[in-house]
Amino acid sequence: LTDQVVPLVTEAPLLRCLQFPLPADPGSAPAWPLRIFVLNAAMPTDDGIAAGEEVWKIREALREAEHSVDLEVYETAGQPGFNVNKLAEALKVWPRGPHILHVIGHSVAGNDPALKLYVPPAAGPAEQGAYIDWTLAQIAVLMGNLPDLRLVYVNACRSNVTGGNPAAPLSIAQVFLRRAAAVIAMQADVAGPAAVECAGAFYLNLVKGAAPDVALKEARQTLLNSLRQTARDTYTPVITTRVRAEDILVRSPLQWSVANQARWLTSLEKPLKLFVDQRPHRRKLLPVLFDPQPPQRGALLRGEEDVGKTWLLQWFAYVMAVRGARAHYVSMTGPVSW
What we know:
The protein has eleven helices and ten strands. Helix 5 (about 170-175) links the parallel strand 8 (about 150-155) and strand 9. It has helices at about 5-10, 50-60, 85-90, 135-145, 170-175, 190-205, 210-225, 260-265, 270-275, 280-290, 310-320, and strands spanning about 15, 35-40, 70-75, 100-105, 105-110, 115-120, 130-135, 150-155, 180-185, 235-240. Strands 1-10-9-8-4-2-3 form a seven-stranded mixed sheet. Strands 5-6-7 form a three-stranded antiparallel sheet.
């Protein structure tokens, strides 16, 4: 009872629904590649929140799904003069925004809940930075610019606790739900190590094909295995959805086989296991290869030696094969007659 475990388990064991039965959402298009925007809004020296470890855990979990994931990590500590407008611009890295927004940071509870965004000092590392509020109103405005947003993961304490303002009794999660199909948020305080472990387990299960509600269930099971059964952190993450669980994040099946996977893994060991640091180029090539518009007939990749051109081409050959396309990779190491 001192950990407030009983209320967490009885009031929201895992899943909350805005209404029941939940409506279908047949209009949502398959999310591929899965666009994930990670917002690290914490102060770098804040060891209690373990934001850097969480970012690394997410990267590690997504590596095996490199062919299906486009990850963007944005750290406010590396953005001099950061403000909410800069965040809005950063989210335009994809014209329609991400499919998943993952927020790491602190929050403010009470009458007017808000997320805290760290702003680095203008004079350099010798100075002390400060936090600014990302208010519910600002969040609501930004959500209007992200039409493809399906899921928000808010790793901030009490982000699923309703505020006490009688004029607008809302939680942070409820405001994100104005756009997103579902939100994972915290219904109590959560310790940094538990938050890191939960996020890593969630994305590991997600990229293996689990639906978001199942992935969160498995992540909470991971916490249960590592913490005592009466630990508050085990029950703190909860998912709230306004659509059926299977409609939160629709993903098209991959045209793939075990034999093909083994053969490609042998030939593409490095590109599969390491993120190819060519994100802007990959984002330009994706529409050319998978949604060509006239008069596009192909793409020419050129650059200096040892900048990753071969990795990029091999990676795209693999991606096309995984998507069911007939892909040929031809290596021309000597004179070739066309």
